[in-house]
Design goal:
By secondary structure, the protein is an alpha/beta fold. It has 13 helices and 21 strands. The strands form four sheets. Strands 4, 6, 7, 8, 15, 16, 17, 18 and 19 form a nine-stranded mixed sheet that branches. A six-stranded mixed sheet has the order 10-2-1-14-21-20. The longest helix has 16 residues. Bound molecules: flavin-adenine dinucleotide. The site of flavin-adenine dinucleotide has 41 residues, from helix 1, strand 2, helix 2, strand 15 and strand 19. Flavin-adenine dinucleotide binds next to helix 1, strand 2, helix 2, strand 15 and strand 19.
Length: 394
């Protein structure tokens, strides 16, 4: 069986590796080096308990703030509003209690067992040191801020995830550097973090190549049906199956095939302070600001913000500057360090649920797209799902 996997981000890398292990002849194609897309600059959190979708009941009331407040964790430049409107309408429509409950069930299916799956994969591909198992600490300044996230915490509880509530003293026992602003901590002890997402993807691709998988640096422009249920990529090689895992660019590859998916980029940013990772010893979430502070291998990474502004606009460094200001207000010890900045495209579905499986009406084409805010978390389980469907007899 010949399979093309398009996109060597965390999703495509895990799929290519899983299929090659089951004996398929796999070519992994990317226009860039592996892992250079959204999968390089994320916060590396393996957040199995995050079963609540982004669009929660009441989301509509946050849209005016999003449009008008440049400091909001959600930002949409007015000029992009007409383009984003159809997706936004689907986003708001998916926030009814019934649809949120259905999304949570689907997300739980993707997240379940994610930490153990990543621990096993990291060991298998030779980088066990990249998994930090010290839990995640979510911080709130007060009860009012915590109450805004109550729905998400109730859903974690309903799906069996446990946490410990900490007061200021408890926060300091775990993370002595946190500013006095934060007085309530919720500690999820069994969550984990990948402390170098790019090196992780590279290790997975290396392991894929070591068992005979082929990596090809090529921008895919077309996927064409041939007689005999085969598929041709770029008028070149032919395949029995094509798996599209091209992140936020996937709709551009799929629409010529008549496959429409409602996927929008939610642009996220990070700032990274080289050498300052020891300021925290685990993933610390400034939950009122929706900012993740992570002790990465190479520095302290501060990731967050959602900017809905499409694939083509250049990064707006004012978004990164907000992250920098907030982290400097929260931790001492960053004085004199100028951070690097990064922007990436989260591939987001309106209901937050990834689209993983065979394309309807296009036998041989498979989708593994739309992992949104949790693509690192869901990558191994996504690959398992595709591999079991494509090579069920194994
Ligand atoms: C700031 C930020 C923080 C995040 N934090 C977390 C976190 O803590 N935990 C978590 O689970 N998730 C997190 N995420 C989300 C996660 O990064 C994404 O869900 C994930 O990286 C998506 O992976 P992907 O493989 O689908 O996409 P990508 O990594 O973008 O990979 C897609 C690949 O396809 C290639 N490609 C595209 N078009 C073509 C083409 N035409 N031809 C050839 N190749 C093509 C690209 O070059 C790219 O390499 C975060 C995201 C951001 C932005």
């Amino acid at each position: 069986m010949r399979v093309a996997v398009i996109g060597a981000g965390i999703i495509g890398a895990c799929i290519a590796h899983a299929l090659a292990k089951r004996g398929a002849e796999v070519i992994l194609l990317d226009r860039d080096e592996p892992g250079q897309g959204c999968s390089s600059g994320n916060s590396g959190a393996i957040s199995a308990g995050s079963v609540a979708p982004v669009a929660m009941p009441g989301v509509l009331s946050s849209v005016p703030k999003m449009l008008l407040d440049a400091e909001s964790p959600l930002f949409l430049p007015l000029g992009y509003l007409p383009k984003a409107l159809p997706w936004l309408m689907e986003f708001v429509a998916s926030a009814t209690p019934g649809r949120v409950a259905a999304s949570a069930r689907a997300l739980d299916d993707f997240h379940r067992g994610a930490v153990a799956a990543h621990v096993a994969l990291a060991a298998e591909v030779g980088v066990p040191e990249l998994i930090l198992q010290r839990g995640h600490l979510h911080l709130y300044p007060d009860e009012a801020a915590l109450a805004k996230d109550a729905g998400g915490w109730r859903m974690r509880e309903a799906y069996g995830y446990k946490w410990e509530r900490l007061d200021r003293e408890g926060i300091l026992a775990l993370e002595p550097g946190v500013a006095p602003r934060y007085r309530i901590g919720l500690y999820l002890a069994d969550h984990a973090t990948i402390v170098n997402p790019l090196r992780y993807v590279q290790a997975i691709v290396h392991a894929f190549r070591a068992i005979g998988g082929k990596l090809k640096r090529e921008a895919v422009r077309s996927i064409a049906a041939l007689p005999g249920a085969r598929w041709q990529v770029n008028a070149g090689d032919t395949f029995d199956h094509v798996v599209v895992a091209a992140g936020a660019s996937s709709p551009r590859l799929l629409s010529p095939l008549g496959i429409r998916i409602s996927l929008e980029s939610q642009r996220g940013y990070h700032v990274q302070f080289a050498g300052a990772q020891s300021l925290v010893s685990r993933t610390v979430v400034l939950a009122d600001k929706k900012i993740f502070v992570t002790p990465m291998e190479e520095g302290l990474r501060v990731g967050g913000t959602v900017e809905i502004a499409g694939l083509d606009r250049p990064p707006d460094l004012r978004r990164a500057a907000i992250l920098e200001r907030i982290v400097r207000e929260t931790f001492k010890g960053l004085e004199g360090i100028t951070p690097t900045t990064w922007m990436g495209h989260r591939p987001c579905m309106p209901d937050s649920v990834p689209v993983v499986g065979p394309a309807v009406g296009r036998p041989g084409v498979w989708l593994a797209v739309g992992h949104g805010h949790l693509g690192m978390t869901d990558s191994v389980n996504t690959a398992k799902r595709i591999a079991e469907a494509l090579l069920p007899a194994h």
